[in-house]
Amino acid sequence: MNLDCSYLVTPGLAWLVAGTAKFAINSIRARKLAFGLIGYGGMPSNHSAIVSSTAVLVALKEGLGHPAFGVALTLAFIVMLDANSLRRQIGRHAESINRIAAREPAHAPLRERMGHSALEIAAGIATGSIVAIGVKAVLG
Hints:
DUF212; Divergent PAP2 family protein
């Protein structure tokens, strides 16, 4: 059995690259180190980068007709639709709840940045694709 570590390395590296880019972008926008903004939401989408890197790597190594590509692409679409619709709505609900609960001193505010815009998802796709192409070039 031949172990191909590129399928393990690629999504991990995509997560690291996207997370580092997100931290840098948030820190520049906030004009300070933005440790409090680590997590869901923001540019680029970590989730989109991870699933895109996997789908692109499968496409490059196995081909577009391989069943694994179909599975990876389906998973990628589900994750990106969830980030753009459900998680964005959760963030909007958190905003409303936080406004209502602001009168309650014991209320810990809910995280409002949950989902992603189409641009943040597109940036995640680009990040994941570049990582997959790089891993394929280096590891084969």
